[in-house]
Amino acid sequence: xxxxxxxxxxxxxxxxxxxxxxxxxxxxxxxxxxxxxxxxxxxxxxxxxxxxxxxxxxxxxxxxxxxxxxxxxxxxxxxxxxxxxxxxxxxxxxxxxxxxxxxxxxxxxxxxxxxxxxxxxxxxxxxxxxxxxxxxxxxxxxxxxxxxxxxxxxxxxxxxxxxxxxxxxxxxxxxxxxxxxxxxxxxxxxxxxxxxxxxxxxxxxxxxxxxxxxxxxxxxxxxxxxxxxxxxxxxxxxxxxxxxxxxxxxxxxxxxxxxxxxxxxxxxxxxxxxxxxxxxxxxxxxxxxxxxxxxxxxxxxxxxxxxxxxxxxxxxxxxxxxxxxxxxxxxxxxxxxxxxxxxxxxxxxxxxxxxxxxxxxxxxxxxxxxxxxxxxxxxxxxxxxxxxxxxxxxxxxxxxxxxxxxxxxxxxxxxxxxxxxxxxxxxxxxxxxxxxxxxxxxxxxxxxxxxxxxxxxxxxxxxxxxxxxxxxxxxxxxxxxxxxxxxxxxxxxxxxxxxxxxxxxxxxxxxxxxxxxxxxxxxxxxxxxxxxxxxxxxxxxxxxxxxxxxxxxxxxxxxxxxxxxxxxxxxxxxxxxxxxxxxxxxxxxxxxxxxxxxxxxxxxxxxxxxxxxxxxxxxxxxxxxxxxxxxxxxxxxxxxxxxxxxxxxxxxxxxxxxxxxxxxxxxxxxxxxxxxxxxxxxxxxxxxxxxxxxxxxxxxxxxxxxxxxxxxxxxxxxxxxxxxxxxxxxxxxxxxxxxxxxxxxxxxxxxxxxxxxxxxxxxxxxxxxxxxxxxxxxxxxxxxxxxxxxxxxxxxxxxxxxxxxxxxxxxxxxxxxxxxxxxxxxxxxxxxxxxxxxxxxxxxxxxxxxxxxxxxxxxxxxxxxxxxxxxxxxxxxxxxxxxxxxxxxxxxxxxxxxxxxxxxxxxxxxxxxxxxxxxxxxxxxxxxxxxxxxxxxxxxxxxxxxxxxxxxxxxxxxxxxxxxxxxxxxxxxxxxxxxxxxxxxxxxxxxxxxxxxxxxxxxxxxxxxxxxxxxxxxxxxxxxx
Length: 1025
Prior knowledge:
By secondary structure, the protein is an alpha+beta fold. Strands 25, 28, 29, 30, 31, 32, 33, 34 and 35 form a 9-stranded mixed sheet that branches. It has a 6-stranded mixed sheet with strand order 41-40-39-36-42-43. Strand 10 (about 90-95) and strand 11 (about 100-105) form a beta hairpin.
């Protein structure tokens, strides 16, 4: 058996078979089988894996490919012992004799691993049985015979040696030789299991460190303790421990087992009689047919947050606010108990995976408020590539990053794949949500559409490689995002790009030195993130470095690689060393732990990550200070002045433990991005849509077994609370007045767009809106054995059409936005009955409608939102959620809410309200967004009339009374006001009507909008005029 490297977790195992196994000792499984062709009896590692066979051969094996690169016939028979150190291999073995048994070879063979050639052997007349290389003297070896004779000999000068004799028993012989890592002690083992220790008693030291050797404590005699009924159990001592026990099995060794055998009903056993084959008994009929007993044992002691009830379920419960408060308080108490129990190796419940449960109403029915009581919004997880959520939360709370994204989004950029714009939209949505759950749908869609992201394997559908761990993926994604937003900024403005370089780029001049001809070349580099570099260091070799020392080594990291030298005209070793020219305002650090135990233990050291550091840039070198060194630097007024950086937060990799995959969370000091300055730090945990305030000490406390940082962010102290909202004063609104279409070049839309002179939207401008959607992915449903259906992932919808109408003025009711949106992915269902769309309507090659990209339509809505417009519509929260925009309640007039009687749970559909109040029948065969928007606008006007007259409550009572009479749907045409014999319209919690499955003829007069809307007309007449 041999390790494949000093810091490797993989070993190679061989034996008396023609195959060897590559084993991952951390996962405890065989990962590769390699044929050998020989039986290996002994293995050593020194640059190569050195394997001795039972025929005297030594195979030199490359550890990366496990292929034999050199064979050496050391002895004519079996190799008995060998050792390797500092590119030298020394072997002892057996030699064959004619007509006699093998005997120990009197020569110890020497092999140079560097030159791959044999050196002169070492003579040992007594028969070389064992050999050990000295760990500190590179060419010194100790050779021993079976009778205890020892020679300390120099490989390069074999004629000079020291001879010793071990005192072993007369009838015994030597069975082994070993040397301490310090080189100051030898251990000899004989066949009687006696250990003979050689060394100086005064300077005896086994390990390389200078700590004195600790011997076992004397065992104290046990106190006699009678076991009887009078002895209290409290006097019996139990061990106290804080670390994980060896009996704690890792996750990969825990498996689900089969069900235990069910218990036979006693009534069956009573009536059981022997039959021709087996036994038969009377059926007691206590269960249903095919119903089986639940026999799997459930772990009731698991610390998990009880899933909240669906919102639709809560509406059917009686008003008992204390029960809800009790559930929340119980969960909080359980969480606090778990967090305070830091002596356990278990992951606190707040850090574990959280999942969204779906009802028949979809994700809108999930109670996100149960997981977040703060004013900081979380991000939902049911979207592809949502593993980026913690990184997005970290970027959002870096004020400089937030300002750059919003200023760019407010500009003229209309690129569909601009991630900087999408970040601006997302950050604005999170701020406006004020604690409500959000989703990064549009950003993640743009992220997935970039080919470079797929090539880097940082998208979920392209990251199936086993070496692409979650830690490596999030660090690669961080580098990619920082590079991509710089490209997005350069596409718009060199000034904006220069500002991003100043904020995020570490500029340096790299000096490349050829080791052959000493030729030097220079190149300029700009890195937007820094990979931390840990010099060769272990917990047992020297004192641990500080964070400041690691950061200095990372800035001034010297690398050596093979490259082409223009002077040598060949490949040669090239040494590269950076010379720092400027340091950025924001430091993004990738920890690069790579599952290294020493690095993880370093980060687990309490207080190792400082909340404040100081960088001094002087003479193309960077010096870093922390703690007491930083305080001394401030007192001495160092020249140049240090640049102080504050820790904003970090993304942490959480190994959730049993039966759960590892996932990412972010821990952020949200006080850094408050608009009101304050010295008090407030750390929050963002575990997707679970958000909770936690103490700073807990945030910065790491555990090597389950919590490790992956991406760390620092920002200059001067940018604390620098939240710039001036972008709202410089919104580029030109796209609101532009007549743009992907598939039409005529001027047929000139009557639609707004006139910037007298129709410019402003705060308080009323607009009516409605949207239509198509299904891009069907719901994933799991059907259980009992027939219950559980939604694993809901139907994914995409915006297909949006219509926005003027809400006031001479042209009230005339649309100025009526965009059909191109879809760049397959549509699985056009939902024609509800959307009015059919195949070909969203294809630029065949559609007769005005088609625009999603980014173009979204930006128009985003501009109207930030200009302060008030949106009028029916069931708008559901539409805004799918569009992926958050509109504050102060800017929404939803007819579902306006015409809802608080004492009733049912909400009325748009079609029923239109039939009752407007005497119009809409949504006859399909839905039309313009028709629905104008209807909502009319209903709002009608509501304002009722409000002015003071009869709102009376009218609501009447409409609900009429609804109960007609089943909350308008009677069909030809029935003279009588209800059609059929099932009622299904009204969801949003209040939007789902059309009935059978065709209903439209009743009532045709709306003026449907008369006037035509592509051949040159203007549009207001239906409300």
